[in-house]
Design goal:
Length: about 150
């Protein structure tokens, strides 16, 4: 390691991170996504972590996984923004599209969002999706949670 890096490390105190976060970073390092292959791998990791979070894991582990997942999703989004360069759809528009192609009614999303009136409020823009809604919708439709984050 260069003297310059050693000096930086001496000047800046290391952040405290959990073993879970370190293991996640060791297994799948958080780096800019630069190719379609890396994007597919990152999306696969995101899908697996969302599945893990949907299975009611240990709270402290889930908090660390959520932190890691947020950064990984940002890295994928940054790549997609550069590659595809189109406006991000509103989460309500994404939801409406997924409902249409899957021939679902508002009442069909009770387990993911809540009552028909709550779904109606989300679709009309009166309410936003929360993290729990996004996790459940991503799992149901087998899509990246980043699709609902705008």
């Amino acid at each position: 390691m260069s003297k310059a890096l050693k000096q930086i490390f001496e000047e800046i105190k290391p952040a405290k991170v959990s073993k879970v976060y370190v293991e996640l970073c060791t297994h799948f390092p958080l780096m800019p996504v630069q190719t379609d292959v890396q994007m597919r791998q990152a999306n696969k990791m995101i899908d697996r972590l969302v599945d893990y979070l949907n299975n009611e894991p240990n709270e402290s582990e889930a908090a660390e996984v959520s932190k890691y997942l947020a950064v990984l999703s940002d890295l994928v989004s940054a790549y997609e923004s550069k590659k595809f360069q189109f406006e991000k759809a509103e989460s309500r528009d994404v939801l409406a599209y997924l409902m249409e192609v899957n021939q679902l009614k508002q009442s069909d999303l009770e387990d993911e969002i809540g009552s028909q009136s709550v779904v109606s409020d989300v679709l009309s823009g009166k309410r936003n999706l929360n993290v729990g809604h996004i996790r459940k919708l991503a799992a149901r439709f087998k899509v990246s949670p980043a699709l609902f984050i705008g």
